[in-house]
């Protein structure tokens, strides 16, 4: 992941409603959720929800797919994984570690 993409993704997640939306979609799994269900679950009004969904789609943190009359939103697991890898790529002084808390000899 390039630094520009990481900054865009982190900026999109650095807002309470957008972070809640992203976490909800992570929990929903690959099936995702329609916008109305996300809004009801998080009690976000439709006008605000559409703005936040647009920002997350723009940052490539979620994917919007048309299914009939509905748009289903899914977490972009590929981007989420790339962001985590970007943030931890120099972990443990460059030594590979599977579990950040157990394998690293240095405190993070």
From TrEMBL:
Residues 1-95 form the HTH arsR-type domain. SUPFAM superfamilies: Winged helix' DNA-binding domain. Pfam families: HTH_20 (PF12840). SMART domains: HTH_ARSR. The keyword Membrane does not apply. Keywords: DNA-binding, Transcription, Transcription regulation. InterPro entries: ArsR-like_HTH (IPR011991), HTH_ArsR_DNA-bd_dom (IPR001845), Metal_resp_trans_reg (IPR051011), WH-like_DNA-bd_sf (IPR036388), WH_DNA-bd_sf (IPR036390). The keyword Cell division does not apply. NCBIfam families: HTH_metalloreg. This is Metalloregulator ArsR/SmtB family transcription factor. The lineage of its organism: Bacteria, Pseudomonadati, Pseudomonadota, Alphaproteobacteria, Acetobacterales.
């Amino acid at each position: 992941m390039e630094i520009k993409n990481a900054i865009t993704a982190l900026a999109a997640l650095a807002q309470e409603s957008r972070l809640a939306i992203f976490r909800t979609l992570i929990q929903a799994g690959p099936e995702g959720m329609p916008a109305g269900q996300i809004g009801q679950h998080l009690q976000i009004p439709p006008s605000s929800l559409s703005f936040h969904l647009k920002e997350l789609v723009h940052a490539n943190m979620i994917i919007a797919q048309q299914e009939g009359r509905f748009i289903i939103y899914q977490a972009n697991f590929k981007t989420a994984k790339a962001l985590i890898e970007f943030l931890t790529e120099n972990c443990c002084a460059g030594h590979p570690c599977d579990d950040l808390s157990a394998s690293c000899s240095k405190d993070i």
